Amino acid sequence: MTIQTVTTTPYPDQKPGTSGLRKQVSVFQQPHYLENFVQSIFDSLDQLDGALLVLGGDGRYYNRQAIQTILKMAAANGVGQVKVGQGGILSTPATSCVIRKFQALGGIILSASHNPGGPQGDFGIKYNVSNGGPAPEKVTEAIYARSQRLDRYKILEAGDINLDKLGETQLGSMRVEVIDAVADYQALMESIFDFDRIRALLTRPDFKMCMDALHAVTGPYARQILEGTLGAPAGTVRNGIPLEDFGGGHPDPNLVYAHDLVERMFSLTPPDFGAASDGDGDRNMILGGNFFVTPSDSLAVLAANATLVPGYRSGLAGIARSMPTSGAADRVAAKLGIDCYETPTGWKFFGNLLDAGKATLCGEESFGTGSNHIREKDGLWAVLFWLNILAVKGQSVEAILQDHWATYGRNYYSRHDYEGVESDRAHQLITQLRAKLPQLPGQTLGSMTVDYADDFSYTDPIDGSVSERQGVRVGFTDGSRIIFRLSGTGTQGATLRLYLESYEPDPHQHGSDPQTSLAELIEIADQIAQIRTLTGMEQPTVIT
Ligand code: G6P
Ligand code: ZN
């Protein structure tokens, strides 16, 4: 086996976004495209020589080929050992778990998360560091800088590894271990949750659960843990076999893309509990019978009930949420007398808070919830957390939320997405909005008065790093907020996200449809930002 050094030239577009490098499959299939990026990762890492790396992906189209290439490049670049998930499968949370458990230098995850897959879909690659979390900006910037100067990469000339057979093989001077994709993750879940109580709930004849894995990576994890270990009836997990194109669907657990699940949960005889996860298993959506739990409320409920779960019995150090996530968790934190941190969008911003022991639970409005057990958000963990709470409280999902709102008040919340907006138009909208910000405070819009208007800037309390321009916020004197942000994860055109929130303390007013409660804010948002005019869209493409 010889090491080849291949001459290459830089691609200008290898700048990682919110969550790694995410592009259409056809972009990744250009000659040397994947190789260039992987070499840029390797060149940016100190201590690569002899190191342990973790490798896996969400099973989408191009996963297997990419894994073979990366293994051969790792061997040529002096990596000591790679643990790779069987069949090339490892969910994002499982990768984080394995990195931490075996103190690996880092891990490479092949996924475009919730973006569609298949030859016409998207592919992605992200690097996680030794704490198991997404690479911080200084690392991704170094990778990008390297990619812009790259003139060669190294790859071992060798045959493919059998990814389906568990066990160790040698690739040049590197050891490759094909690992059970679920086992380490399952052991971690068993150390956190009360599996006996959850088993008692899931085997009750009057309790029905439906988990939709959307043909993505959570399938094997959910089937083994929920149906295998916890005794849920076969068929509890739907669409549980990962497919390269996710069955043609959009593996994003929200009310629009998880439509089959939503239909079942909003039927005449719905299951008691419904959940879905995304392409790479880090997102979650939680539903009760005829009831949707917003991700912001889910974080607040988990926080308020955390001590019911063995892993959090001794309480929480703090809570962290992304800026556009509703303030529901802040109210729980205030009652518990703990800190609540507000970070920019992107899980990586939680890493320092978790490492420093300042936050135990974290959550984002984008269907992400997690804790200090790993350094990624974790879809199935959230599902098990909810099951543990349901098992202990013996209430329905809806009753839990109603009690919660009665105690803390309700933060009405909705996100409107305008997808596929022409990029120039979207940037124009944000630029015009920024220009207006200084004049907004004090203005009366509809029945509301603007309290503050700014572009969110975050100073990390641990390392002092500053992240600017993380979303335009307009806050009103009654505590309502409107936030405007451009998505950092799309691959075509731009997506405008509009986040709307208002607070209602009165329990008699907790039963409204959020779109009705937020109608005035929706109108004001259009007035401030000219959304309809500039996007050319009358309605958002997705409302959650
Ligand atoms: C990924 C990250 C999340 C983040 C989300 C934002 O899923 O892992 O932490 O919240 O992207 O996506 P957006 O499209 O709004 O930039
Ligand atoms: Zn994801």
TrEMBL record:
Swiss-Prot/TrEMBL cofactor(s): Mg(2+)
Region Disordered, annotated ranges: 1-20
Gene Ontology terms: biological process: glucose metabolic process
Feature: compositional bias, Polar residues: 1-11
GO molecular function: metal ion binding; phosphoglucomutase activity
Family annotation (Pfam families): PGM1_C_vert_fung, PGM_PMM_I, PGM_PMM_II, PGM_PMM_III
Reaction catalysis annotation: alpha-D-glucose 1-phosphate = alpha-D-glucose 6-phosphate
Domain Alpha-D-phosphohexomutase alpha/beta/alpha as annotated: residue spans: 14-152, 192-287, 296-408
Source superkingdom: Bacteria
Keywords: Carbohydrate metabolism, Glucose metabolism, Isomerase, Magnesium, Metal-binding, Phosphoprotein
Known EC number: 5.4.2.2
Family: Belongs to the phosphohexose mutase family.
Protein name (database record): phosphoglucomutase (alpha-D-glucose-1,6-bisphosphate-dependent)
Species name: Lyngbya confervoides BDU141951
Taxonomic placement: Bacteria, Bacillati, Cyanobacteriota, Cyanophyceae, Oscillatoriophycideae
